[in-house]
Amino acid sequence: MNKAVFLDRDGVIIHNRSQYVRAWDEVSIYPFASKALGRLSKSEYKLIILTNQSAVGRGLMPIESVNTINANLVKVINQNGGRIDDIYLCPHAPEAECSCRKPLPGMILDAQRDHKLDLANSWLIGDASSDLQAGHNAGVGNLILVQTGRGRKQLVLLNSQPLPYPFHVSPNLWMAVKSILS
Fold first, then answer.
1. Are 90 and 101 in contact (CB under 8 A)?
2. Cα–Cα separations (whole angstroms), residue 114 to 2, 62, 110, 111
3. Fewer CB within 10 Å, N- or C-terminus of the chain?
4. What is the model's pLDDT at position 35?
5. What is the pLDDT of residue 124?
6. Could you say which residues of the chain have pLDDT below 70?
7. Does residue 150 sit in helix, strand or coil?
8. What is the DSSP annotation of 83-142?
9. What is the rounded distance in angstroms from the CA atom of residue 51 to the CA atom of residue 175?
10. CB 12 within 8 A of CB 173
11. Catalytic pick from 8, 86, 118, 127?
């Protein structure tokens, strides 16, 4: 069985945009992300991006644009000494009631099947409670909320309405990776 680090895309690896990241020229990679993914790439973990992309389901962008953004992101990560083993995305709008949209565990369970993953010994890094909930719902053993993207605001909400399971908090992806590998 393989172990994985599941990574949310927007807010963890790249900056969020209020009107969605709709094209490659709107992508802004966090400066520490390449270094973090390069270091993590030398580990035993499978590196898997999980991303809700409701702009597709809302008719705001075609799936081809998401695929282009993801392909270019992987290319940049590879050029900087990192790797991504797979990407799972939910293109549905929230009202579609699919099984893949976080906080539901569909993407993680698909990755588990495809990569023969040991979820109890895997990690999930996200910037929203829905990321943490998806990991918990799938049985991922270690959850980290980063304070980039929506993370700071989410942490304030989680302090007033705590989740019924433990999670770690990290300032950013680089610090989260250092914790995982220590």
1. yes
2. 11, 25, 6, 5
3. C
4. 94
5. 98
6. none
7. coil
8. ---EEEEE---GGG--SSSTTSSHHHHHHHHHHTB-GGG-EEEESSHHHHHHHHHHT-SE
9. 21
10. yes
11. 8
**How far apart are alpha carbons 3 and 112 in whole angstroms?**
9
Active-site annotation holds for 8: yes
Which of 155, 150, 182 minimizes the C-alpha distance to 168? Answer: 155
Decide if 10 is catalytic: yes
Q: How far apart are CA 145 and CA 128, in angstroms?
A: 7
pLDDT digits (tens, 9 = 90+) for 51-94: 999 999 999 999 999 999 999 999 999 999 999 999 999 999 99
Closest of 85, 17, 90, 2 to residue 50, by C-alpha: 90
Domain architecture of the chain: domains with CATH: 4-181 (3.40.50.1000)
Biggest distance spanned by C-alpha atoms of the chain: 43
pTM of the model: 0.97
pLDDT at 82: 96
